């Protein structure tokens, strides 16, 4: 790999979220699923409003993570409705909003703990309480 630093799976999952957020992804979540599933350690979910935005989000993750990791497989890029990127220990799902609502992986994986996304990465920061 090009990067000299070695990142943990959690650090790479946070980077996936950051690269998605760079393209204004919506409702980005990182689930720590390793204790309840053998498919991966982390699941990153993100949404876009159009096929072009979903494709741009996935490309941002792929290019941004390249110094540390490359996907084993990627599905759904041509359609841009639901793109799945498999990094082995991390699976990234990028959906159009309505597709995400139909499959509701947020609820399916809801019992898994979530990894906090650092506030400085968020472009759509929640309003602070007065």
UniProtKB/TrEMBL annotation:
Keyword Secreted assigned: no
A GO BP annotation: negative regulation of translation
Localization (cell): Cytoplasm
GO molecular function: ribosomal large subunit binding
Main location: cytoplasm
Highest taxon listed in the record's lineage: Bacteria
Keywords: Cytoplasm, Repressor, Translation regulation
GO cellular component, one term: cytoplasm
PANTHER family documented for this protein: IOJAP SUPERFAMILY ORTHOLOG (PTHR21043), MITOCHONDRIAL ASSEMBLY OF RIBOSOMAL LARGE SUBUNIT PROTEIN 1 (PTHR21043:SF0)
Subunit-structure text: Interacts with ribosomal protein uL14 (rplN).
Family designation: Belongs to the Iojap/RsfS family.
Protein name per the record: Ribosomal silencing factor RsfS
Source organism of this protein record: Geomesophilobacter sediminis
């Amino acid at each position: 790999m090009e990067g000299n630093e070695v990142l943990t799976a959690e650090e790479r999952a946070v980077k996936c979220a950051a690269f998605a957020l760079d393209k204004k992804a919506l409702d980005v979540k990182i689930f720590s699923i390793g204790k309840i599933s053998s498919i991966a350690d982390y699941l990153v979910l993100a949404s876009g409003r159009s096929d072009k935005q979903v494709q741009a989000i996935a490309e941002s993750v792929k290019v941004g993570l390249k110094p540390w990791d490359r996907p084993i497989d990627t599905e759904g890029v041509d359609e841009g409705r639901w793109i799945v990127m498999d990094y082995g220990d991390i699976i990234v799902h990028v959906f159009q909003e309505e597709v995400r609502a139909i499959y509701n992986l947020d609820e399916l994986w809801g019992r898994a703990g979530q990894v906090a996304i650092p506030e400085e990465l968020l472009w759509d920061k929640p309003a602070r309480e007065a």
